Amino acid sequence: MTRTLASLDLAPVLPLWLLLVLAAVALAALIPALVRRARGAWWRALAFLLVLGALANPRLVQQTRETRPDIALLVTDRSASTEVGDRAAAIEAARAAIEARAGRLPDLELRTVVAEEGGNQGTRLFAAAERALADIPRARLAGVIAITDGQVHDVPRSWPGDAPFHVLLPGRQGETDRRLRVIEAPGFGIVGRSVDIRLMVEDLGVAAAQPGGPVRLTLRRDGAAPRTETVPAGREHRIAIPIERGGPSVVEITAEERPGEVSTLNNTAVVAINGVRDRLRVLLVSGEPHAGERTWRRLLKADPNVDLVHFTILRPPEKDDLTPLNELALIAFPVRELFQQKLRDFDLIVFDRFSNRGILPPQYLRNIADYVRQGGALLMSVGPEFTGPSSLAATPLGTVLPARPVPGSGAVAETAFRAQVTEAGLRHPVTEGLAGANPAADAAATWGRWYRYLRADARGGNVILGAPGGSPLLITDRVQEGRVALLLSDQIWLWSRGHDGGGPQAELLRRIAHWLMREPELEEEDLTAAIANGRLTVTRRSLADAAPPEVTVTAPDGTVTRRTPERTGVAARSRTCP
Q1: Dihedral, CA atoms, 515, 520, 525, 527, nearest 10 degrees?
Q2: Tell me, what DSSP letter sits at residue 262?
Q3: What is the pLDDT of residues 170-187, one digit of tens each?
Q4: Phi, psi of 383 (to 5 degrees)
Q5: HEC string of 4-34?
Q6: What structural domains does the chain harbor?
Q7: Distance separating alpha carbons of residues 392 and 375, to the nearest angstrom
Q8: What DSSP character marks residue 109?
Q9: Cα–Cα dist 330/289, whole Å
């Protein structure tokens, strides 16, 4: 609507204060004449008025004004939570009704903005509103109307401006819902200790007015067998989660369904806890001295996070000739303390060219075998001592070893050779992509040569490094809950000396140790999923060369999607599925 207005405007030639002074002077000159009623007083007054009026410079201003309507903002929530039940239909009907009513108001302009799904960031409703308000003059803003289910994750402390803010919530009278809310969950935890997750089970709606009863929670970690706990509704509860390995552990917590609740989607919470090792405790037991013994010690001591206990056993524990301790160059090995009382305090046990010439009783070797079966880690680097009657393979420890030396005098082979990554080793994370390794099973490696290996029969595990004639050189194996690695040569130290070009000794041993301690990035059988930019990527790593299985993905709304993964790597056999 257009309107024309006229007004008188002053644009004085002189400053206003000076005009006032002149007016005061003129008035002072006129008052005596007017009091005496002198002739011509009124003419002088008219002259003064005309002069002051000319100096005030009056102007007639004529304006044509156009009335601009007020602007109202309508924010519609289209996040994933609005798809529960018939919320989406109710929101759409409310939006259409508001737009229809606003269209009948002549002095109101309605602008509509949609708050889309924010992925991991949740519902960013106020962020969408603020982007739209940037184009609206605050003087014309009539108000903001939000149609949402109430699940908003960017609510500001205070609403900017003085415009009213209205919220419409879709729903029915008497609705109830159960929600599992994680109050606090640690992002990290020390391996071997427990962390607490603080949570609360809340009954919303009509159920909130009723006294909270016991609720059964189901906890599942890393896909293992579930366990249940009973917690009171409406009260904070702590759940202790033991951290058993390094890397991320995914804990899924589900509250039992309440009869008649709107949705069970918020009955489940997923918490990721990254396990870190405080200090790595390693027991290194050396047998007869050799050139590579110092290399093992230097390698393990180079890591400041490693607490190394190193013993070289050269005398049996029962040998005692009553020599005073201050005159002994060698002390009796504390076998009872290490292999019975404190054995499970170690994260990794390493035997380097150790032979059992009556040094360790069978009971202690049996303790080490039980330590492995119950989740321990054992690394053995063996030489000629692994053959013959004093071999550890002939003791109770041999029950957890993945190979035995071949009988006879041909068990020790002394010839120049280059370690070869096997077909399984090309896919195994311990030997995959090592510098100097052969790129294919039938190709040649370029790292330095070794000059001795043991011929052995592999009884289990995965042979990832091989010697000439198809003999195993490095075997990794899982024994119940624990892991074992067996290196059938004592000459890996040549790589650290740079002999014949050297090789990745430190990297290989680091990977072996981390695989033994079940670091997630070195799992040879692994299935991971990650969401980035609204895209789900599923990656499977496997030593099997068979065709990848079909992947089934179930969305929060129950939609099931099936995809056949594609191979994206030859060595690692990594497959992704969008």
Answers
A1: -170
A2: S
A3: 877 777 888 898 999 988
A4: -130, -150
A5: EEEEEEECCCCCHHHHHHHHHHHHHHHHHHH
A6: 2-66 (no CATH), 70-168 (3.40.50), 176-276 (2.60.40.10), 281-319+326-521 (3.40.50.880), 526-577 (no CATH)
A7: 20
A8: E
A9: 14
Distance CA 77, CA 97 (A): 16
The mean-pLDDT minimum among 60-64, 258-262, 310-314, 522-526 falls in 310-314
Distance of CA 256 to the CA centre of its chain: 27
SS (H, E, C) 261-281: ECCCHHHEEEEEEEEECCCEE
**Six-digit token string for 70:** 């007020």
Q: HSE on the CB side for 152, CA within 13 Å?
A: 20
Give the Cα separation of 421 and 444 in Å (integer): 9
Kindly report whether the global pTM for this prediction surpasses the value 0.85: no
The predicted-structure confidence for 95-123, as pLDDT tens digits, reads as follows 999 999 998 988 889 999 998 877 667 78
Given the structure tokens 């002549």, which residue do they identify?
A: 106
CB 520 within 8 A of CB 414: no
Assess contact for 220 and 190: CB atoms under 8 A. Answer: no
* Token duo for residue 118: 């924010």
Q: How far apart are CA 66 and CA 352, in angstroms?
A: 93
Contacts of range 335-338, beta carbons closer than 8 Å, 24 or more positions apart: 335/360, 335/361, 335/364, 338/283, 338/309, 338/311
Structure token digits, residue 576: 């992704």
C-beta atoms surrounding 412 within 10 Å:
17
Contact 144, 163 (CB under 8 A): yes
Our CA dihedral for 450, 452, 457, 461, rounded to 10 degrees, sits at -40
Which residue is associated with the tokens 């002095």? 107
Residue with the bigger pLDDT between 281 and 60: it is 281
Q: Is 316 exposed, middle or buried (CB count within 10 Å of its CB: 0-12, 13-18, 19+)?
A: middle
DSSP percent split of the chain into helix, strand, coil, nearest 5: 25, 35, 40
Burial of 387 (0-12, 13-18, 19+ CB in 10 A): buried
- According to DSSP, the β-strands at 348-352 and 280-286 are parallel
